[in-house]
Amino acid sequence: MKYFLDSAKIEEIRYAFDTFGIDGVTTNPKHVMNSGKSFYAFLEEMKDWLKENHLEGKERFPVSVEIDPNFTDAKDMIEMGRKIAALSENFVIKIPCIEGGVTAARKLEEEGIRTNLTLVFSPAQAIIAAKNGSMFVSPFIGWKEANGEDCRQYIKDISTIYDNFGYKGKTEIICAAVRTPKQMVDCAVAGADIITAGLDVYLDSFKHAFTTQGVGIFCDAWNNTVTE
Ligand code: E4P
């Protein structure tokens, strides 16, 4: 199970990497806007951070970067995808799972540029993503569960389909927009390859009342023991 951080804030990325060793990053236009940086300034900052941490390279630390979501034409998406990919081998081109997006992902993958088909809300969309060779597929969890849907079967179905047709290991399932530690666990049990979530979700996952209580109990014992 890999953990990606869903953020474009370099200080959050640094903290998550140093504290609990995240395996990659996902971003979207909202995250880039919230970083307070321009799109290309963020990419440059990300490149510097990758270099600083010796994480450069195609097989290492993928960073999903979303193309302009206004594009509907595959040609525009491919052009922007190529431009982003030329900046760093770590950059994975994130594209909405719409008609033009699926075509663009296939063409970019044929050129050796990795893609992540995003805004996936059904197993049917996940099949299309895998059939077209996308390296990652991002089924959204939080949005569906906020709408009253339980996502366990949804992820299980995608995982089963990928197993049945040999897509497992070729297209990795990134459970995206994960909002709670319970959703993280549900996705892991259901067959996700990767979770992507905000820093707050990961930090919440470290917390348990018994852990806090236990640390207190052991501190009392330690403090009442001769340790020299
Ligand atoms: C995932 O890859 C997306 O960046 C993200 O999860 C989108 O959803 P959110 O911004 O509502 O969390």
TrEMBL record:
Instruction: Please provide the record's keywords in A-Z order.
Output: Schiff base
Q: Could you confirm whether the keyword NADP appears in this record?
A: no
Q: One of this protein's GO BP terms?
A: carbohydrate metabolic process
Q: Tell me which InterPro entries the record gives.
A: Aldolase_TIM (IPR013785), TAL/FSA (IPR001585)
Q: Which Gene3D superfamilies match?
A: Aldolase class I
The record's section on PANTHER family has:
FRUCTOSE-6-PHOSPHATE ALDOLASE 1-RELATED (PTHR10683:SF40), TRANSALDOLASE (PTHR10683)
Q: What is this protein called?
A: Transaldolase
Species assigned in the record: Proteiniclasticum ruminis
